[in-house]
Specification:
3-stranded antiparallel beta sheet, mainly alpha, 367 residues, 48% helix
Length: 367
């Protein structure tokens, strides 16, 4: 299988998984589970965002807009955006710990941006701009840096794909999402002529970008956090390259490090959160090493890592994509995460939807 065939297969199969994930809420709103089998029987904010990003215009415009309002209309009084919403409309804000994860406001902004970008519809943003501002303002920031902050004395979930990990202090991935959210909401404001608000968010994005230096390890990776779990973050480092949160020199440094550590971070085209053999120093619940978010391999991050690697090792990145496809085909399904003698949750949409969002960029970088 060549890379073109692999790219085509990923997008087609991701579309099929989105179709399998569809469900109706009790009020008739069409929603989308994270998986096609109902293992996660609710509507998750971040997973929906990844579907829209990965498969633009695949979800009907009306369904995308209605699902967006299904989330933001359940914003909590303090600004928190639901982590997920049940089919009965009941919102859930916390996962582990007494505070919400530190990523859902950013994903809400990204969804509004995707609706504008994919369907040329900015009306949902116009109608919810104040809600999105309130959501972003609800995020906890460090006093010494414009980064997401999690109190070491009150650990709780951060980025949802590490929600069992007790990262504390300044936290990388949610901070990268915050940088991205400021950039995207600024673009939305510019599109409707509100240049003052756009400038404010561009300035905030610049401060987040500058503050990321606090988490740089000096070893080709960012640290996942500044206090607990101050460990090398594979996903976050690759994502910083994807969203342009690092300059050209650092981009190449991260790319070379991911390439040189390939055998320690990638298996079957899927990616560990940390290089082997490390597990997280602190978790919010017991997670066996080598499983789930504590050492298993995920397709969710495959596109980000493959793209970063492609900037210095194009053939290796191309092989990574084809390995992911060949593994999924041999298994007959896309798993949420895998390891030797370990498989979790079949028909997991983000495993292919996230790499789908990077197919065009990978194709351009591999030409």
């Amino acid at each position: 299988m060549n890379s073109e065939e692999a790219f085509k297969w990923i997008v087609e199969e991701a579309g099929k998984l989105v179709g399998k994930s569809m469900m109706k809420a009790s009020d008739g709103t069409m929603l989308f589970r994270p998986d096609g089998g109902g293992n996660y029987d609710a509507f998750w904010t971040r997973d929906f965002c990844y579907m829209l990003e990965g498969l633009p215009r695949h979800i009907p415009h009306e369904n995308a807009v209605q699902a967006y309002f299904f989330i933001v209309n359940r914003q909590r009084e303090d600004g928190a955006i639901p982590d997920r919403v049940g089919l009965d409309g009941k919102p859930f804000y916390n996962v582990l710990g007494s505070n919400p994860p530190t990523d859902n406001p950013q994903f809400a902004v990204k969804i509004a941006w995707e609706i504008w970008h994919s369907y040329d519809d900015i009306t949902p943003f116009v109608q919810t701009a104040r809600m999105l501002e309130k959501a972003l303002n609800s995020l906890p920031l460090s006093r010494k840096a414009d980064l997401i902050w999690i109190d070491p004395d009150n650990p709780h979930s951060s980025y949802g794909f590490t929600d069992v990990v007790a990262k504390t202090g300044e936290e990388l991935f949610s901070s990268l999402l915050l940088y991205e959210a400021h950039i995207k909401i600024a673009e939305l404001y510019r599109a409707i002529g509100r240049l003052g608000e756009a400038g404010l968010h561009e300035a905030k994005a610049g401060r987040v970008k500058s503050s990321l230096e606090k988490l740089w390890s000096g070893e080709g990776y960012f640290f996942a956090a500044s206090k607990d779990c101050r460990q090398l973050d594979v996903w976050g480092s690759a994502y910083s390259v994807w969203i342009g949160a690092v300059d050209h020199s650092r981009t190449l440094e991260i790319s070379r490090q991911l390439s040189s550590h390939f055998d320690y971070i990638v298996r079957w085209g899927q990616v560990r959160h940390l290089p082997e053999p490390y597990g997280w120093e602190r978790t919010l619940t017991n997670v066996k090493p080598g499983t789930y978010q504590n050492g298993a391999y995920w397709g969710t991050a495959s596109g980000w890592v493959a793209y970063a690697i492609s900037l210095t090792e194009r053939q290796l990145a191309e092989q990574m994509v084809t390995d992911l496809v060949q593994f999924c085909k041999s298994e007959g399904k896309a798993w949420e995460c895998v390891n030797m003698d370990y498989r979790k949750c079949p028909d997991y949409v983000a495993t292919l939807a996230c790499p789908s969002s990077l197919v065009q960029r990978l194709k351009l970088s591999l030409q």
